[in-house]
Amino acid sequence: MFDTFYPLYRRIGPAVLTLAALACGEKSPETPQEPWPAVQKILNETRDIVVLDGVQKASLRYAGDKTPAAGDWRIEHMLSDPENYNPYTSSDAGASQVQAFVFESLLWASPEPPYAQNGHIAKGYPVISDDKLTYTFELRDNVKFADGKPLTATDVVFSMKVIKCPTVAAPHLSNYYASVVDVIQEGDYKVSVVCNEPYILNDLFLGGIRVIPKHFYDPDGLLDPVTAKSLIDGSWGKGPHASRVKRFGEGFNQNFNQNMMGSGPYQVADWNTDVITGQKIVLTRDTDYWGNGVEGLAPSGHMNKIVFKIINDQDAAFIDLTNGNLDVHDLKPLEFKEKSWSPDFMKRFMKGVPFEGGYMYIGWNNAGPLFGDKRVRQAMTHFTDREGMVKNLLFGVGETVESPIHKFRPEYNNDLKPYVFDPEKGVALLKEAGWADTDNDGILDKEINGKKTPFRFEFLVNAGNALRKDIALTLQSVLKDVGIECQVRELDWSIFLERVKKKEFDAITLGWTGGTGLAFPPDSYQLWHSSQIEGNGSNYITFRNAEVDRILEDYRKEFDMNKRITMYKRFQEILHEEQPYTFLFKRRVATAYSRRFAGVNWYPGGAQTQEWWVSPDNRLYQ
Question: Across the strands, what pairs with 400?
């Protein structure tokens, strides 16, 4: 549910926008002389998800009448290895995508309006006190973890204790549970969560907690004598169990980066053979999964194996797709426009084309000497030809954005006047901020802290992502003409992410996905509140603003939607003025997927891959 980095394009999976197919075996129409204009016309007519059968718009719902059956594999492309496999400390989309099949939550949200939350580990929606401060969940008594041990209220309490444990490196996650002050176990299958103030998304995030097995993640029982309340109010630090809490945090942060266990329908069967760095991650369907045959649950999946094939170059991944070694691949804009319309390609693949749930941006280190002045950040946005990027890099398949709020949500501020591409205005802003070429060497400079400082900086991008590199190079070209030296540097995803988290950068280009999407109100606390600067918090660009902090705090407690909209429009006005990010665009991402998959239905937030299945006569793997 929380926002996550995505190291490539939008990734598929149940927690983010996903892709789908119609009935397998359908023949694609012949390739027209000029397919792209026809496709552009279809895409320009709607903001909704589009499914393409060749160059024809196809139905969003599966029209077949066959009964789903378990079998076959699905092989997907992943650009980089996940940051790690720890369910609480990882924050990249690759890890979240894998974990979504392994861990389960108390509730699951219907993919169709009104997006009702239904019981999963819990029997149903919680009983909520009149003051909206206590949420009581009654658990199913038949849920089991992958090793066969039962999931009980003890595991739910433990999971919340871990999230709230100050020695666990999960600030991006714990902020969604900031109002929780106690967790009370009431028997083996009943638990109440007590909050000190209302939060508009408490039902979503309390119901969405990934429940982890206590016996696996705390085999020595270090947290057993430590109460949830003491971890939350800080009294543990002066209590008799302080050393246990510290030891637990150290172990949890280090020992479960390459290991995991949940109650979900898929698990890693053999960590020695199924998880190979730089090659693959293989998840195997648990034939003894507790939810098999249980009515009312979200679809658990029909594929025997889900394989994430790691290919650190998108061009190589496209070749693997065309050679039949991938079933699913997000197409680069140029691949979508020019390389995916041959008769052979259309015969084998459908295309799903949704708008991504997140957005791309250039992040400026607000605490650094170069970008601490908002006039400089405003100038950088004027130097960024965002409309040109949509036209030339995305071939028009996208829209510019001016804020972090989902552009199709009512909270989005459509009154913000876009920063147009205007290098002259950017130069004027830099001059106003004191930048000039005082020594005629062609590079702007300024005295900062008593030292003459040239305007020279490093722009980091993750290796293998051609679009992000093109964004950086496009800006680099403009900056060179105005006297700014920008060095574009590619780094492997893990190294890149480490630099970002340590705030060791001048500028980066990244994307956020996840969050609450279209279905639920947004909550921007994780990314923009000043408390999220410290440690591994997600405010990597070190943005501080007292008014924004107040808005983000008050918004969480306001249940009147109209008042929330007013609050967030002001929040966006401040970001627009400050330009801590140069907000770029949200894209339509075309995903090619094998026609052999059936049983796919498209919803407003995408498609759920657990619904996919393959009929016996179309299977490739056993």
Answer: 585
